[in-house]
Specification:
The structure holds two protein chains of two kinds. By secondary structure, chain A is an all-alpha fold. Chain A is built from eight helices and three strands. In chain A, helix 5 packs antiparallel against helix 6. Chain B has a single domain, classed as Arc Repressor Mutant, subunit A, CATH 1.10.10.10. In chain B, strands 1-3-2 form a three-stranded antiparallel sheet. The chains are: A mainly alpha, B alpha+beta. At the A-B interface, helix 1 and strand 1 of A face helix 1, strand 1, helix 2, helix 3 and helix 4 of B. Strand 1 of chain A pairs antiparallel with strand 1 of chain B.
Chain lengths: 227, 77
């Protein structure tokens, strides 16, 4: 049978405060998602930088690695949902932000590949072409239209959901990661596009990988006594 | 109620873990709150195991707010 305990008014308020604190402290992301995306995006960006700097090619496009990471992410999401025992009010908001981010990145991939092709087609129809004219007397070269410094936009994108999550969940590593990434975005405006890749690699580390390591440590510390 | 007020919904096991209550004791309290219309109790199966999820109703939220206000007035916080 349940034992009823009479609390004084002071004790009641104290208990309420304690329970609210316990519920708020119960937020624990496993950190695996952050670690996954932090490492995958960082490796892909860094590899792209190395490829362009040392002029070599892999047998596959390194960005396929990022696309392939969706599969373990789906598995992680299903597994995390199963072990989640309480749902916070802001969980839906944070999940929605990351979903929109994912869709936007996917759409950016289309933009990046379709726009230059369409521009090339349009200017060909109009009967002119883009040329690279060298001032040192070398012969002119035809250039394919491209979206300049596009990876800067990606870096800007990386900061957005990270900052929202950091602010909503009051998780400072993500806030600081996003602030550093905004700085990297501005820096990337002045750098050559291959260095944007290097900056993007750093952005992925500070936005997701480092917060992921911290989240993972916290999660393991919280779950250890229950094992 | 204080625990449930801070989350959108919580599983029975989560509440038991946080309150350090026994399953029997907590079941009685949950039933009382449900009867009063303060919480909604959803019983379902998850991976072939029974799962009980609780969430505060608007009436429960109002009652809780009134209770805290009364406590604060009494203690002049």
């Amino acid at each position: 049978m349940a034992n009823e305990t009479k609390f004084s008014e002071q004790e009641s308020l104290q208990l309420i405060a304690e329970m609210i604190k316990k519920a708020k402290g119960s937020y624990h992301d496993t950190g695996i998602g952050s670690l996954l995306w932090g490492s995958v995006v960082s490796i892909a960006s860094l590899m792209n930088f190395l490829q362009r700097t040392y002029d070599f090619k892999l047998w596959f496009d390194i960005w396929w690695l990022v696309l392939a990471a969706i599969i373990p992410q789906v598995y992680i999401s299903i597994k995390e949902k199963k072990i989640q025992k309480a749902k916070q009010y802001d969980d839906d908001l944070v999940n929605a932000v990351w979903l929109v981010f994912g869709i936007s990145l996917f759409a950016m991939g289309f933009y990046q590949n379709i726009v230059p092709f369409q521009v090339e087609k349009t200017i060909a129809e109009e009967g002119w072409t883009l040329m690279k004219h060298f001032t040192d007397g070398r012969p002119d070269e035809v250039i394919r239209p491209f979206t300049p410094s596009l990876y800067s936009i990606y870096i800007l994108f990386y900061a957005f959901p990270t900052m929202v999550t950091g602010l909503v969940k009051k998780f400072n590593p993500m806030k600081y990661g996003a602030i550093i990434t905004y700085g990297l975005f501005f820096l990337s405006l002045f750098t050559e596009s291959r260095f944007d890749m290097l900056l993007g690699s750093i952005a992925a580390l500070v936005c997701w990988f480092i917060p992921g390591v911290i989240l993972r440590k916290k999660y393991l510390a919280q779950t250890r006594p229950n094992v | 109620m204080s625990l449930l007020i801070s989350v959108k919904e919580a599983e029975f096991t989560f509440i038991r873990e946080k309150t350090n209550a026994t399953a029997g004791n907590l079941s009685v309290q949950v039933q009382k709150l449900k009867d009063a219309g303060y919480i909604e109790v959803i019983k379902q199966f998850k991976d072939n195991y029974p799962q009980t999820t609780c969430k505060v109703t608007p009436a429960g939220l109002k009652a809780f707010e009134d209770y805290v206000k009364a406590l604060q007035q009494y203690l002049k916080v």
